[in-house]
Specification:
This protein is mainly α and 51 residues long. Helices cover 45% and strands 0% of the residues. The protein has a domain of 31 residues.
């Protein structure tokens, strides 16, 4: 995903540009909550003896 966002291979970029790119991607994922569509169901199931 980083290679696609940078427009090329990550190894071809300068360290400063790479650091900025990763920081920008991290802040965007926190801002927009990438897993907001996940449904979490929690609870306790009552299990009885089989008949």
């Amino acid at each position: 995903m980083i290679d696609a966002a940078s427009g090329g291979a990550l190894g071809d970029l300068t360290p400063a540009y790479t650091t900025g790119l990763i920081e920008k991607m991290a802040s965007n994922s926190q801002q927009f909550n990438m897993r907001s569509d996940a449904i979490v169901m929690r609870g306790v199931q009552d299990v009885g003896p089989s008949k």
